[in-house]
Specification:
Blueprint lengths: L1 H32 L5 H22 L3 H6 L1 H11 L2 H12 L2 H20 L7 H23 L2 H27 L3 H13 L2 H7 L9 H30 L1 H4 L5 H13 L6 H26 L1
Helix pairs in contact: 1-6, 1-11, 1-13, 2-5, 2-9, 2-11, 4-8, 4-9, 5-8, 6-7, 6-8, 6-13, 6-14, 7-8, 7-14, 9-11
Length: about 300
């Protein structure tokens, strides 16, 4: 009993830390993308920072954990949560505000996790109602973009697509029973391999950015979002399960709204505030379905 309580306490601390990291990540990425840095710059800095953390770990272990995982599985995880994942999110941040990404990405993760789970288990009525609320919130949130700027709508759709990718990653990690360090290390290692080609051939604004801005993005996108947050989410899933882990997702848009309003001056419309509230409620309602079933 005490052991379970300790695990839950550590998972809560990890979840709150993850929320803070993601909120800062979205706002920081949006800020630099509006200034000097390109989408590929952000992805390069992300995995350069994450690689500095995980490559020594991989080297010390002699690649044994990755060999046990298998290169086919490792490549699959890297495609879903590695280099293409931040490229898509940062591409979306060019067109849509940071709050859009912070609201749509986690809501999409919960929604697509629900769809993928239908192949493995029967959905409860409570969880179905929660996901229905998420769908309503998603549609309400992107409604102004459909009627207005097509660029904002494109950004929103990219955020939703990234949610599909990450939910598939989390599902496979759980199904394959991969420990957090191995999963994150595989994603980081394989994502670092194309970085020299991006540096040489992709458009870049690094020459125009200040050293402090570049260093800050290495820390925020790489060490925190690329390494720490991914490890924390995988750790939480392993400790308390994917449904309970998704309880933390509603906190991401709420925290990002506050940070974004203070730093970027980006304020959602009244309709979008309502949509965020609906999605947050749906995420929480859906995530507690698993816990309710266990207590019944």
């Amino acid at each position: 009993m005490a052991e379970n309580t300790g695990k839950a306490r550590l998972a809560i601390i990890a979840g709150l830390t993850m929320i803070g990291i993601y909120a800062v990540q979205f706002v920081a990425a949006r800020f630099s993308l509006r200034q000097h840095l390109t989408v590929t710059d952000m992805a390069t800095l992300r995995f350069a920072g994450a690689g500095a953390v995980f490559l020594p770990i991989i080297w010390r272990n002699g690649f044994q954990q990755l060999k046990a995982l298998g290169w086919r599985r490792a490549l699959t995880l890297a495609v879903l949560a590695g280099l293409p994942y931040p490229l898509i999110i940062n591409w979306g941040l060019i067109y849509a505000p940071a709050v859009h990404g912070a609201a749509l990405c986690p809501a999409s993760i919960v929604f697509f996790s629900f769809l993928l789970s239908l192949f493995l288990e029967r959905a409860s009525q409570r969880r179905t109602i929660g996901v229905a609320a998420i769908i309503a919130g998603l549609l309400l949130f992107i409604a102004p973009a459909r009627a207005g700027s097509h660029e904002v709508l494109l950004g929103d759709l990219l955020f939703i697509g990234s949610g599909l990718m990450f939910s598939a990653y989390a599902t496979l990690v759980r199904q394959w029973r991969i420990d957090p360090v191995t999963a994150t290390a595989a994603v980081v290692l394989l994502s670092c391999l194309p970085l020299p080609f991006l540096t040489l051939f992709a458009p870049s604004g690094l020459h125009a950015a200040a050293g402090a801005e570049i260093a800050g993005q290495v820390i925020i996108q790489g060490l925190l979002a690329g390494a720490a947050a991914m490890f924390l989410y995988t750790y939480i899933v392993g400790q308390i399960g994917s449904q309970a882990a998704s309880l933390f997702m509603p906190g991401v848009p709420i925290a990002t709204v506050m940070v974004s309003m203070a730093v970027l001056g980006e304020t959602p419309t009244t309709v979008q505030f309502a949509a965020i509230a609906i999605m947050a409620a749906g995420m929480g309602f859906s995530a507690t379905a698993g816990r309710s079933a266990q207590q019944a």
